[in-house]
Amino acid sequence: MKKTIITLASCAVMGLASCSLDINDNPNAISSASNDNILPTAEMNLAATVAVGFNMYGGYNAEIYAQNAGCTNYLKYSQFEVTATNTQGSYSQLYSRVLQQLEVVRRQSENEPGTFLAATALRAYTYQLLVDAYGETPYTEALTDNTQPKYDDGKDVYAGIIAELEEAKAAATASSSVCANLTFGKTTATTGNAAEWIKFANSILLKLYMRESGVVDTKAKVAALIAENNFITSDVVYDQCWSNASGSYSPLYTESKTITSDLTLNYNITATVKAEGVNDSRLYANWYDGVKGMVGNVSGTNLSAELAGTNTADLAQPNYRYDMPAYLMTVAEVDFFLAEYYAKAGDNAKAKSMYEAAVAASFATAGVADVSAAVTSEAYPYDSNNPMKNIGIQKWIHYATTMQGFEAWCELRRIGYPAFSGQTAEEIIASDLKNFSAVPSTYIPGTIHTPKNVYAPVGAGQLRQRFDYASSSTQYNNNVPATKNPTVPVFWNNK
After folding, report:
1. Rounded-to-integer distance, Cα 493 and Cα 42, Å
2. Cα atoms in the Cβ-side hemisphere of radius 13 Å centred on 197
3. pLDDT averaged per 10 residues, the chain (length 495)
4. 299, 425 in Cβ contact below 8 A?
5. DSSP codes joined into one string, 258-318
6. Of 264, 320, 360, 418, which residue is most buried, by most CB within 10 angstroms?
């Protein structure tokens, strides 16, 4: 088998460096290079955005993260404020690097269906991020000579990438060759075949169909995928391609070198897990106890004014390490989507089975003692009268375990669970957090709260529904739509 090694230092630098290209540059401008080099570079750029920028923006808005005591770098995020300037680097990274690089690969592999499918799958994944973040985004006129591309409606972008992905999948077979890549937990960029990419494509399609299922009738499409029964059977993650050397670290570990102590878990997450009472240790996959134990903070504050003497070391800390995983998709996510599909189809037996499988897969990803049977029988059993509540709560916990903050925010917006309890951050501080109570006495497990000093355009008892259009686009593109209020849903949540 042909083997191409992409240096880890190059991957990390290309993934995290600031972007100097205009987002509307034509991918033809990229100097000629082989797909064996370009695709791994695109993968690392995507991993950096997913694991750092979008993870942070989404994770604070999903209330799986909170600002650590005495720190301020992410405080505004924890109040549901994400500005056009905040996301400009990630937005540029996705267009000027990831999508441009993938477009070159697609152009250079028109007669290589396996490689074309791989690039198309990652392209669909990237556009899904952009739609789910901003609602509208350049698509039909992007990556062309047009320097003022129009913003397409999210529904149209979804339709476009679904069609692209279905066509690319139909053209490939399991034995179709794929250029060197790093997806599926590889240590170095190596060639292979399309078998795993077909599974990944099916799983992406499932997510797209389920995400838009509230406004588009996708039942037949999902049923066809289920009949095909060829989804991912292992997590899609970048975790083996990092090394313990400067410039070769995992993206989030690199970020931690600059901002070391700002991130902690949200009290909602730690208290919900502790309240299960079944020794659920999934959080320990990527977190460790602070001095006060596995206790997080509430949204909107760093506790410095409320609890004098509280230190950053008191609260739950990320288990930063050079090989921290950057997840694109997990088996648990697929199973949660399938549980939702069956629940909405009225097949509660299959829904219950898939829900229990999803929670078990979550424990497998975390690599800790599996008490999923106790979680789904004692703490959060499948409820045929309101199946989406516990599905939503367990999916939210899973994303906190894997540090997939952006996907947590997407599903929280779409599913509506965990729901707002009516409690405020101040009330939780006064009742539970002042004593660093791991098991809450007042906070209602499996709920979210209004942050202290919540961003006024969002307001109390509401989630932020979208990001402001990135300034890296608004400064150069005259076709950017007028900024929408942050509570205006993206298309798939406009029910």
Report:
1. 30
2. 34
3. 31 32 44 88 96 97 96 95 96 96 97 98 98 98 92 98 98 98 94 98 98 97 98 97 93 89 96 97 97 97 93 95 97 98 98 98 98 98 98 98 98 98 96 95 97 97 97 93 97 92
4. yes
5. HS-S-EEEBHHHHHHHHHT-S---GGGGTEE-BTTBS--B-TT--STTTSTT--GGGS-EE
6. 264
